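Section 4.2 – Deliverable D4.2 (structural model, holo form)

The reporting period included a commitment to supply a predicted holo structure for the target in complex with 3-isopropylmalic acid. Inputs used:
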Amino acid sequence: QTCFDGVSIKRETSLRLNLSGFNGPLIRDKSTTRFCEKERCFLMEKKITVLPGDGIGPEVVASAVKILQVIGKRYNHTFHLGYSAIGGAAIDQFNNPLPDETIAMCENSDAVLLGAVGGPKWDNNPPELRPEKGLLKIRKHFDLFANLRPVKAFPSLLASSPLKREVAENVDLMIVRELTGGIYFGEPRTKTNEGAVDTCIYSRAEIERIVDNAFELARLRRGKLCSVDKANVLDTSRLWREIVEEKKAQYPDVEVEHNLVDSVAMKLITNPGHYDVVVTENMFGDILSDEASVITGSLGVLPSASIRGDQFGLYEPVHGSAPDIAGQGKANPAATILSVAMMLQYSFGMKEEAAEIERAVNAVFEDGYFTADLAREGDRVLTTEEWTNKVINEIDASFVSESIMISYN
Ligand code: IPM
Ligand code: MN
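Output (structure tokens):
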């Protein structure tokens, strides 16, 4: 385990997320930003904790780190990286899926990049010693209540979608999943041989903060919000729906609809283009985001951001650790690379840099380069590393491995 040098940055959690990454004026962190008069641009210095995790996590994270390097070089930013353990890797090393050292390093950084956790090796562990526990704990510890999962069609991937082209094209939606409440964390929870209990619980404040942010986000997009619940059965859903109704008046420019989760599961397949921002509670969001993720062709291209009221955030691909293909160079690094783009946008306000990564990823797909998950008959299958190099070449053909990045490892 390693530690960052320097002072830790104090953060205050507010109810409103900093949405400056989406649009509007940039809020720059003065302590880590300099304006370069000569180049007329901002030079930033950021600390990122890297948690490779299990399965294909280390491979896709290695790709994403290379993209950070090339962006750093091209735009003159300095990214300090510190590596730490989470999930199964941390259980093996420290008998703890989220060691204190890992928390400390994350606390002392501006953002966290995570690969994936989990694998058959730990499947029979007791609940407290499961890799997934590390992920749930880090979300809760840092109060990362807003999970953003954008689902946007890449035209060149549509042939791999299980849906008809006419249905899948033009999909551009954002799932806003509440991430630190509901049945994932509710008490009591017990299990004996004779029975088990999980508790779904939401406070008004928890619902209000996620709903407010979903409204704000809808405002910056196409102005449509679909709130997903099961209000015909669940009391938590009834409260959720009431709060969305109350909030409507504050956002007259946003068009709101309420939909039951079972119906949304169906409409995501029949008419996904209908949706703009979809806001929902933790468990529904988990399920719907996996469903929505394949619309675009592969789970391997879906990034996510888990954020809270300030600029700190955790960025990870939506796909899991895929232990069956780990270590074989088969993994698609696109989701993790796009997660880095989300980090640049939402945590660092680097909109241009984020857009450049998205452009490069799209260009590589357009050129017909794919990893195994997306390749069709006749396509040459690229390894994780080969595909990453194509993206690097798109961003900066002159990139050489020496870079301005300082990595502690
Ligand atoms: C996800 C995952 C996690 C979740 C698991 C690994 C705990 O499925 O990020 O969607 O259920 O939230
Ligand atoms: Mn999931």
